[in-house]
Amino acid sequence: MRFPPPTGPLRLVVADDNPVVRAGLTALLSGREDTTVVAEAADGREAYEAALRHRPDVVLLDVRMPGVDGISALPHLVRLAPVMMLTYSHESGTVREALRLGAGGYLVHGEFDTEQLVRAVRDVCEGRPHVTPGAVRALLPPAAVPGASAHTEPELPAPAWDMSAKTLSQMQSSVGQSFRSSFQLSSREAEIMDLIASGMTNHQIAATCFISEKTVKNHINHIFAKLHTTNRSQATAKWLGVA
Question: What residues bear 4-aspartylphosphate in this entry (predicted)?
Fold first, then answer.
């Protein structure tokens, strides 16, 4: 569906059930000359109502939200504005379904900085698909990505879901390591930080990682020190790139 081109700064709706993520994205995108956030939403229903009211240039949409989730809201939202998935979810089925339902892009938290985010928003607004590496890998069969780097950004001149695995794999050009590498977390600490960002408690993290809660607490103390934060909200905001 074609939408009229913006006449000023890109007007955005941010939909995410995590208030830290919403606040961080709003602060990032409203403090610029070329983008502004006109509304926030905590679930798909609120996102639809906000899009209906404000007619934004792009909707930034999380996948997993209580009530009406992003995938359920997507077919309704794409009738009102271009939609870019901005989420932690990079399961193959989720990525494929989002793109099938009309999402113009799919960004996985931790795989972009502010300028890359703004460029992606503008690309989606102008009808150019934009997908970060985690989503690209989700679109490829395992055999197609043996040498794919975890920290590359694809350039997609045509919709990813219309391309062969070989074409997608060839598109991944190195842009250097993710900003997360600067935190110097160990692989275990990065795993635990991902679980913190997903909303898990210490007890749930311990069960998931098969370690004791005391060990989880020790890892979290090391993580907070490396991220220069003092609580989970601050650490999550930094880890997701919205602080």
Answer: 62
